[in-house]
Amino acid sequence: MFAPIKAAQWTFEAKDGVPDDRVKFIQAQFEPMRAEILRDVMRAVEYGWQPFERVYTIKDNRVACSRFKPLLPDVSSPILDKDTYRLIGVENNGTKLSMREAALFSYDSECDDPYGRSIYENIRVDAWWPWKDASVKLAQYT
Questions:
Q1: What are the angstrom distances between the C-alpha of 13 and each of 24, 44, 55, 103, 116?
Q2: Whole-angstrom Cα distance, residue 30 to residue 45?
Q3: Which of 78, 21, 18, 72 is nearest to 44 (CA)?
Q4: Where would I find the beta strands (DSSP E) of 8-133?
Q5: Alpha-carbon distance 40 to 51, whole Å?
């Protein structure tokens, strides 16, 4: 399932009028992090979503993104605007991060739901009925 994602190459393109050095600067930041980003982003398939903290540094007198630090989905939650319900940040273990400081990837999200849907939801009903049936039978015997 993940093979096409891992095998696909990233391309870096800019709109007309954007200097080539900016494209190269962005590419130089993200290419070394590619494997780590893909590994952590794909966890969204299991949980339905995966939050990140963007870690910045100064490189060549510019602010650069040096890491996408994965956050634990179990202790994180999306922050939504009260009026528009638009995603405006992520809260992780009591620390609030704006979308300038955070990133969020959702899997199978419906209607802008930041939590998405775990791939295991597809098997939840069918996978558990044999276990429940065995538990009922065991209870009858005891």
A1: 9, 26, 23, 21, 29
A2: 22
A3: 72
A4: 49-59, 62-70, 76-80, 87-92, 95-98, 102-106
A5: 9
Q: What is the pTM of this model?
A: 0.76
Q: What are phi and psi of 69, to 5 degrees?
A: -85, 115
**Residue 111 burial class via C-beta count within 10 angstroms: exposed 0-12, middle 13-18, buried 19 and up:** exposed
Q: Is the dihedral of CA 11, 17, 19, 20 positive or negative?
A: positive
Q: Does residue 116 sit in helix, strand or coil?
A: coil
Angle at alpha carbon of residue 60, lines to 58 and 63, rounded to 5°: 35
Q: What averages of pLDDT result for each successive group of 10 residues across the chain (142 residues)?
A: 86 92 91 92 91 92 91 94 93 94 92 87 74 85 82
Listed residue (58, 60, 48, 52) closest to 100, CA to CA: 52
- Report the SS3 class of residue 35: helix
